[in-house]
Structures are given as structure tokens and as C-alpha cells.
Amino acid sequence: MKIRKTKFNFDNTPNHYLRGNLFSTHFVNSLHIIFPVGEHFFIKSVKPFMANIKEEQLKKDVSNFIGQEATHAFQHEKFWKILQNQGFDIEKYSKFIDYLSNNIIVKNYTKLLGKEKAQKFSLAITAALEHYTAMLAEVVFEHEENWEQLPDDIRNLIKWHAAEEIEHKSVAFDLLNSVDKSFALRSFSMLMATNLLFGYSLMGISYFIINDSKINHKKIPLDFIDFVKTIASPSFKKFASQWVLFFKRDFHPSQIDNMHFAENYFKENPQYYK
Ligand SMILES: [Fe+2]
Ligand SMILES: [Fe+2]
């Protein structure tokens, strides 16, 4: 695992860049906002535990995890300019998401649990959300046909992010295990993570659709069917098979065989990364 430098350029991105599909594009657009907010939260969640990590390897992994997540956030935030040019008030919307996450959700459970327990809870939510990003990453590599027509740099943004999510899928989980092995904490955090992810995605898709001035209303039914077929259904199938594994007492992310997706992607596309 390492921190890679990327030089994506998203200029000249068409409005409905994913298969010309309103829903698929706005699902990915909602992720362009959720990911950076989530990734800043992940970094904040692991930091308080870094000083006490005893294992050298885990120490290195956590620092690479921070570097990778910071780079992901930076690249997705770079995409915000494109969305702003398309007429979306991203500054206002991202500030709202950030406020909701930090000033309402995190602040309230910190008040309720106290600082120490709240820090563990944040770390456990991070581990659970990392299980989701690894599942989504598998969907990305199992459905290459979805991304074929995308502009090169957006396709590589998606695949690079997916590959690194697979690469670092165990880090937050291992850190949580080194801090607190509580099965109840891990399970409850997954329920919380599930609510957050689905809530934010739905909110994001709704925001982008409501504020999209380029909607072709006649295409809505067909676009919706295509979105369900190509993105929603493969994702839900993946969640149905792997979500429950997180609730097995002896679960570890390395038990899921998907590392080859990341390795192959970086082997086949060295020109994009240093
Ligand atoms: Fe990430
Ligand atoms: Fe991640």
C-alpha cells in the first residue's frame, strides 16, 4: 500500500457524463460530495489512536490510509468546480452536509457518550463505512461496462479510488480491533453507517435532480430503469451477500477475496500514478 500522486483533469466534462443517465450521474455526483466529507471524518477518527499503536506495520498502514483518503478527498473536491460550472451551488450543499455530519451528528453523540467513547464510536463507524467502500469497489471492477464510455480521467478517478479502497480495506478494522474488540460496538456502528450512507446518498441524488436545469423529462423513466439495472441492482446484490459478513464474530476484511482487482488495475494503468 502506498500514497499515489494523481493528475486528473476533469475539464470538458459533459452534464450527464455517466451513460447520459440522469440518475446514474447524480448518484456519482452525490458521492463526489459524500466521499470528501466522509474521508475527512475517517482521518479525524483514526488520528486519536495513532500514538498508541504498538505494531509497526499497523502504524505504517494507518499513515498510508490517511494519505490515501486525503488524496481521494482532494480529487473529489476538485470535481466540485465542474459541478459548480454546471449550475449547482456546491459550496452551500457541501457546507450543509458538513454541518449536519460534524455539528449535529458527531457533536450530539459526543455529548451523549463522552469524548473517549465517542472517539471509539467514530472509529467503529469508519471501519463499517470502509466495509461499504470495499463492497462498492468490487461492483466497480465487476461491471467494467458501466464506465467504458466515461471521459478517461473520470473513469480512472472511479477505478483508482475503488482500487485503493480495496487495498486499505483492513486498516480501520485492524485499528478498531487493537483498540476495542467489542462485538456490540462493531455491530451497532454498522447499523449507524448503513443509515448514514443510504440517507446521504438519497439526499444527494434528490439535491442534484431537483437542481438540475438540463433534465429531459421524457427520459426519466428509461434512465431510472437503466440506473436500477446497471448500478442499484448490482450494488444491492453485493450488499446482500457481504453486508452480513460484518456481523460474524470472527470476520476480517481479508477473508473477502478481492485484492486482485486492485493489483490488476495498478499493474495495467501505471501511467496515471507515481
Ligand atoms: Fe476513499
Ligand atoms: Fe477508504
Describe this structure in words.
The chain is mainly α and 274 residues long. The chain has one domain: Ribonucleotide Reductase, subunit A, CATH 1.10.620. The chain is built from 9 helices and no strands. The longest helix is centred in the first third of the chain and has 30 residues. The radius of gyration is 18 Å and the shape is globular. The mean pLDDT is 94. Bound molecules: fe (ii) ion (FE2) (2 copies). The site of one fe (ii) ion (FE2) has 5 residues, from helix 4.
Which short descriptors sum up this protein?
72% helix, mainly alpha, Ribonucleotide Reductase, subunit A, 274 residues, globular, binds fe (ii) ion
- Shape summary: globular
Sketch the topology as an H/E string, one letter per element: HHHHHHHHH
Which CATH architecture is right? Orthogonal Bundle
Radius of gyration: 18 Å
> Which structural class fits the helix and strand makeup?
mainly alpha
User: Which ligands does the model contain, each kind named once?
Assistant: fe (ii) ion
User: What would the CATH topology be?
Assistant: Ribonucleotide Reductase, subunit A
Main sheet overview: none
Q: Give the class-level CATH name.
A: Mainly Alpha
Topology, number of strands: 0
Give the integer mean of the pLDDT values. 94
Query: Beta-strand level of the residues, as a percent range?
Result: under 5%
Measured between the Cα atoms of the first and last residue, the distance is 13 Å
Spans of 5+ residues with little confidence (pLDDT < 50)? none
What would you say about this model in short?
The protein is 72% helix and 0% strand.
